[in-house]
Design goal:
This protein is mostly beta strands. 0% of the residues lie in helices and 50% in strands.
Length: 123
């Protein structure tokens, strides 16, 4: 069974950058689509970006257009969320999730979830 662990969160000033990692264990990541979600205080969880097993990505959140990017390294069994020009409204717990799908990716029907990493954007 796949286990996911996020890391890389923390406190960052507005305009700063962070790279989150999603490390997988228990199975190869090669046939899984990966997605990043976030949940801000008092808000519902939001799907941000997903990436196919071969590296194609989709963006589901207009608010992160041009600032966030998703990538993966199957050999390292790790996916990443690169976040630039961070804003206070990006403050949230960020989760990665996976589902078995060798071709497509989406933010629905995710099978495995990490426990999240907190990102706080504040001066």
């Amino acid at each position: 069974q796949l286990q996911l662990v996020e890391s890389g969160g923390g406190l960052v000033q507005p305009g700063g950058s962070l790279r989150l990692s999603c490390a997988a264990s228990g199975a190869t990541l090669d046939y899984y689509a990966i997605a990043w979600f976030r949940q801000a205080p008092g808000k519902e969880r939001e799907g941000i970006l997903c990436i196919t097993s071969r590296g194609g990505s989709r963006n589901f959140a207009e608010s992160v257009n041009g600032r966030f990017a998703i990538s993966r390294d199957n050999a390292k069994k790790t996916a990443y969320l690169e976040m630039n020009n961070l804003k206070p409204e990006d403050t949230a717990v960020y989760y990665c999730a996976a589902r078995m799908d060798p071709i497509y990716c989406s933010i629905t029907d995710m099978e495995y979830w990490g426990k999240g990493t907190l990102v706080t954007v504040s001066s």
